[in-house]
Write a structure and sequence with these properties.
Pfam families: Abhydrolase_1, Abhydrolase_4. It is built from 15 helices and twelve strands. By secondary structure, the chain is α/β, with parallel strands linked by helices. It has a domain of about 200 residues: Rossmann fold, CATH 3.40.50.
């Protein structure tokens, strides 16, 4: 692929793909491209990694070659590289003073220069999603497909949305699962991210209240959580031998809300509440005490080239923190804060937020959980509004980040659309399936 699509005859890099051929060649529809999330997820690993093909139903695998890729700057597609030592000096995500704000801006600037120096072929400045849109169309052409069949998940939905903007006539089917809304400014981005995480936590608390298999059943879950958060604020909460900061505690909870893994989350919170401060470092599995490599990956730069989330100074930042705490009194440190701090001081992106403008495409399927901890249902409804008659939003009435693996009903809806171009009725939904794990 060209490093810079504005200079198609310039420097090039290798974009890595993987394909599993249709298991029933006689019934083959074509090739379906899966758009990985993140940003930073490996689509190649999704195809070749052990057990990862379970992401796709047997029906889908029989009818399509399943293809995915490592996006530019990710995995083995000319990854963004930075010195490990500099990556290891990242400031705390939650900023607590003007001095810390200024230090974060300086760190981000220095890190960008370091990554730019260490990333091969000058790719560092060309990892935005608009560049990936052209990569995706080149993949379509290389597969011999006249029109694209695409299933994007989470951040991969942004790739699908912007492909529809640029190439609406080249779409056969576009299924976007757990929808990213790329029209939001700083305030709305933080507010909606906090609200959807709080909603998922509320659903977990309600489950614990009605389910005896919850390790915290009969307990005041919110009081226990407030105590954990208070201990983390004081630097007195330990996990795996290290101090757990409030932001990191929130992220650990968020990850367990993805599937959701409510039973594991309850046990995790119970164990944390009973934990004592420790001093010995616990070596993570696979660490082995080996020295870290000289260079490490930093795919988060993709986000900074797609989003402009300006904050003037610490006073402005602290105002946003207070607003988030009102919206999400339990989950007041959403992962979206990392998006904010990691991009402070970044230059204006080539692919800034805007409302989608898609003209006369084939019907696009949007699918979202009603209670999604990462890409809230309101993001999906907002994107559906932007797409208008070009899209149909199908709702999974349950929980978790993703719908395809959440219920047989949701999976069948997506499969029917991708295979037979069967579009669900507007307002259609699948009932919730109570999580078992």
């Amino acid at each position: 692929m060209p490093v810079d699509w504005g200079k198609p005859d310039g420097e090039r890099f290798d974009l890595r793909l993987a394909r599993r051929k249709a298991t029933d060649p006689g019934a083959r529809v074509g090739a379906m491209v899966f758009g990985p999330g993140g940003p930073g997820d490996s689509g190649v690993e999704r195809i070749v990694g052990k057990g990862n093909m379970r992401r796709f139903s047997d029906n889908l695998r029989s009818r399509f070659d399943i293809v995915s890729f490592d996006p530019r700057g990710v995995g083995i597609s000319n990854p963004i590289r930075c010195t490990q030592e500099r990556l290891g000096r990242r400031p705390p995500t939650v900023i607590k003073s003007q001095a810390a704000f200024d230090a974060t801006v300086k760190y981000n600037r220095d890190l960008r220069e370091d990554c730019r120096r260490n990333t091969e072929k000058g790719l560092f400045d060309h990892v935005d999603t608009l560049s990936m849109v052209k990569d995706l169309d080149a993949i379509r052409a290389a597969l011999g497909e006249r029109s694209l069949t695409f299933h994007g998940s989470s951040y991969g939905t942004l790739l699908g949305e912007q492909y529809a903007e640029r190439y609406p006539k080249r779409i056969r089917a576009l299924a976007l699962e757990s929808v990213v809304d790329h029209s939001l400014g700083t305030r709305k981005f933080l507010a909606t991210s906090a609200a959807t995480l709080q909603d998922s936590f509320d659903e977990f608390v309600a489950w614990c209240g009605r389910t005896k298999s919850c390790a915290l059943h009969g307990s005041d879950v919110r009081a226990l959580w407030a105590n954990l958060l208070d201990r983390a604020e004081r630097g007195e909460l330990w996990h795996n031998g290290t101090v757990l900061a409030p932001f990191d505690l929130n992220v650990l909870v968020m990850k367990r809300l993805y599937d959701p893994e409510w039973a594991r989350l309850a046990k995790f919170l119970q164990e944390l509440s009973e934990s004592k401060a420790g001093t010995e470092r616990v070596v993570a599995e696979g660490d082995g005490g080996k020295p870290e490599p000289a260079l490490g990956a930093n795919p988060f730069e993709i986000f900074c080239q797609d989003w402009s989330l300006p904050v003037r100074d610490y006073e402005d930042y602290a105002r946003e923190l207070r607003r988030v705490a009102k919206i999400a009194p339990d989950m007041k440190y959403p992962r979206a804060l990392m998006s904010l701090s990691a991009c402070l001081g970044a230059p204006a992106p080539d692919n800034p937020q805007h409302r989608l403008k898609v003209r006369n495409s084939r019907p696009i399927l949007l699918t979202n959980s009603l209670h999604d901890p990462a890409t809230g249902y309101d993001w999906a409804t907002n994107v559906a509004g932007q797409l208008g008659r070009n899209a149909v939003l199908h709702t999974y009435q349950g929980w978790g980040h993703g719908t395809y693996s959440s219920s047989p009903c949701a999976q069948k809806t997506v499969d029917d659309y991708l295979i037979s171009l069967k579009v669900p009725a507007r307002g259609a939904s699948c009932p919730a399936v109570e999580p078992t794990g």
